[in-house]
Amino acid sequence: MEAPLINGGGNNVEEAVVVVDLHHAPTSAIDTCEGDYPQITTFSQAKSICWLESIKLWTIAGPIAFQILCIYGINSVTQIFVGHIGNVQLSAVAIALSVISNFSFGFLLGMGSALETLCGQAFGAGQTYMLGIYMQRSWIILLVSCIILTPIYLFATPVLKLLGQRDDISEMAGQFAVQIIPQMFSLAINFPAQKFLQSQSKVGVLAWIGFWALIFHIFLLWLFIYVFGWGTVGAAVAYNISGWIVSLAQVIYVVKWCTDGWKGLSWLAFKEIWAFVRLSLASAVMLCLEIWYMMVLVVLTGHLGDAVIAVGSISICMNINGWEGMLFIGINAAVSVRVSNELGSGHPRAAKYSVMVIVLESLIIGLFFMFVILISRDHFAIIFTSSKELQQAVARLAYLLGVTMVLNSIQPVISGVAVGGGWQALVAYINLACYYIFGLPLGFLLGYKANLGVQGIWAGMLCGTALQTLVLLIIICKTNWTKEAEEASERVKMWGGSGD
Q1: Which residue of 240, 327, 408, 416 shows the fewest CB atoms closer than 10 Å?
Q2: What confidence score (pLDDT) does residue 166 get?
């Protein structure tokens, strides 16, 4: 569904010049008309616009994707360290991170994604001073959301048992879930600050913060697990510390170096907060229905015969898929920023061409990753486990993983378009129908009734993803971008861009 440079501030003038100049830069084939692209009539124009959009998109997407990959790497590296302790520990931590932590991650990221629409369009309309107000509103809402989500962590063990997980896995996963509650609260600070910076395309600092946090996390895991011998408790402590390092570093940068968008704490953060909650909830539902969909895949495998091997193999595949997914969440954020900025600036053709370019390039990347997975299908599981049986189980799932990577190369990008355009509620209904009314029942039937096991569950759920992607592509093809630009202008006014 929806990651990642235009700057209105005086401290990053060079970044601002790069993006604005690229947007308005004439080439031998095109000349911009009031900041927007002309209608494409020749192949030379198409090639020039494709080149300009690729530069602008990847200037944004590259640093954001790198940062998100580093943050995801904190999850992945945690599982890698724990996986070499034992198979049960791997399954327990994988369940805690894939089910319990991902549940809150998806909800909070979705709530914070409302800022991608509002901040992106406000920045495009020149209302930079409103970004800090929006971020503070989001902090308030997400912190309250964390309090509401805390019981899920506290009662993770009975919840997992209710979902059919083995008792020993549920007990250990429940303990780990309680231990990582502090990390969940760090996300309430992290996501709004991240969206604040992304909307202005100040993404270089996000990449550096993510990189150093990952390096420090690896050191903490080594120290707590191998030197101190704390086992899974050490993994949880390292996870909490790394999460808060990322959040606090982002806030420090916002306060010290983003003076155009950050004017200090303000009571305006409480203005229109209920309307803000409604938009945040629409964003959360849209994104959660996607993230939880693959989470359900892990849960369903826990009911199969050999739960340890089934959960372990699917968790390793989801971990690998997650690495690619984080890259495309970065691209998702980039197209969201591009679409929202251009619609807020009243440039419908620029928004349209941006979408066309990134969808094509994302498909090419997805096909490349599928090829890599199929070539290395007998070997990549070694990174996560020393068990030969588990490695063989993963190899049998590699073909489905490859197809998933192709679909996941397009789907997050389309979701980013939806966020940039403010279509969250519509996409939420589409996700509900395609994923949970069509894909999930089909996966259950293939996995349990047709006795196809993990492969059947996964194949059925992939059909749901394919249907959702097809529906969204049709909607985008039929979109009136001029009308979307007009609605973006009205949205900025409605949210106080000219009144506050």
Answers
A1: 240
A2: 82
Same domain, 57 and 96: no
Find, among 77, 10, 9, the residue nearest to 323 by Cα.
Answer: 77
Token readout for 480 is: 């009136």
Structure tokens at 292: 């939880």
Whether residue 322 is found in the same domain as residue 410 = yes
User: Which residue shows structure tokens 């070499």?
Assistant: 84
Supply the mean pLDDT for the chain.
82
User: Length of the chain in residues, anyone?
Assistant: 500
Structure token digits, residue 222 = 């080594």
Percent of the chain at pLDDT above 90?
27
User: pTM here?
Assistant: 0.71
Q: In the structure encoding, which two tokens stand for residue 32, read together?
A: 């911009």
> Residue 5: its pLDDT value, please?
31
33 located within any domain: no
Same domain, 136 and 266: yes
114 contacts: CB under 8 Å, gap ≥ 6? 138, 276, 279, 280, 282, 283, 424
Residues 6+ apart with CB under 8 A from 475: 426
Judge contact between 80 and 72, C-beta under 8 A: no
Question: How far, in whole angstroms, is CA 248 from its chain's centroid?
Answer: 20
Give CA–CA dist 302/310, Å, rounded.
7
Inside any domain, residue 74: no
Q: Which residues of the chain carry a pLDDT beneath 50?
A: 1-33, 497-500
- Cβ neighbours of residue 213 closer than 8 Å, sequence gap 6 or more: 70, 71, 74, 242, 245, 246, 249
**Core vs surface per residue 210-248: b (16+ CB within 10 A) or e:** beebbebbbebbeebbeeeeeebebbbbbbbbbbbbbbe
**Selection from 135, 141, 120, 160 nearest residue 343 by Cα:** 120
What range defines the domain where residue 137 resides? 86-285
Q: Is 36 helix (H, G, I), strand (E, B) or coil?
A: strand
**Are residues 189 and 337 part of one domain?**
no
> Is 173 in contact with 96 (CB distance < 8 Å)?
yes
- Going by C-alpha positions, the residue among 135, 91, 442, 119 that lies closest to residue 293 is 442
Two structure tokens written together for 498: 């000219």
Determine the pLDDT at residue 124. 74
Q: For residue 78, give the 3-state DSSP assignment.
A: helix
Q: How many CB atoms are closer than 10 A to CB 368?
A: 14
What pLDDT shows up at residue 492?
A: 66
Q: Are 343 and 124 in contact (CB under 8 A)?
A: yes
How deeply is 6 buried, as exposed, middle or buried, from its count of CB atoms within 10 A (0-12, 13-18, 19+)? buried
